[in-house]
Design goal:
It contains 9 helices and 7 strands; from the N terminus they run βαβαααβααβααβββα. The protein is an alpha/beta fold and 229 residues long. The protein has a single domain, classed as 3-Layer(aba) Sandwich (Rossmann fold), CATH 3.40.50.
Length: 229
Amino acid sequence: MCVLIAIEGIDGSGKGTQAARLHAHLQAQGRRAALLSFPRYQQTVFGRKIGDFLNGKFGGLDEVHPLLVSLLFAGDRFESRDLIQQTMASHDVVICDRYVASNMAHQGAKSAGPDRQELLDWIQHLEFSIYKLPAARLTLFLDIPVKQAQQLIAAKSRRSYTDKAADLQEADGEYLQRVRDVYLQLAKGPDWKRIACTANDQIRSIDDITSDIIAAVESVCGGVQKSTV
């Protein structure tokens, strides 16, 4: 049975880098590993609209109701559901660079209290119960303070969906802090593992973070049969 692993974290936490390194490690170990990244900005109708949203085409973060925004991100995965299922059917491990929890954290950051919990429950119901997406066996939360995350955002290369140095979400430090707070709440749940990306207020080395990720993944993938192909 395929193991689905989600890598999550606020913008600038190094998800793409670490997802690629984990993918390479698993392949080197002889496992049939695949890597998917969400949103799929250029590959889906919803992904292209997400790019418009992040570029401010529909208004500011506080001008579009988070429930409506959640439909865009969930729709991108629903449009990709066949791809996810087909990839899982032909691989031992599938890594997702962002998954359902990303939608929950980013939209949940725009509300508080009972309203936040109602929204989190809605997104889970939408993506798993209505859209029938497979659940992640393990979700890795790359935890980094906003200050260091924004330093890394500033060093990013150009992205396919924006010409800006930082998109609508990345540019708002207060918003990113609320997103991190929601992630910390979610990471208390089962099948989550928090990976600290800083130590003594300094960003840890990429290799050290990768080592922690590999250890967490091997704890759930140890019994997965390696490919003989």
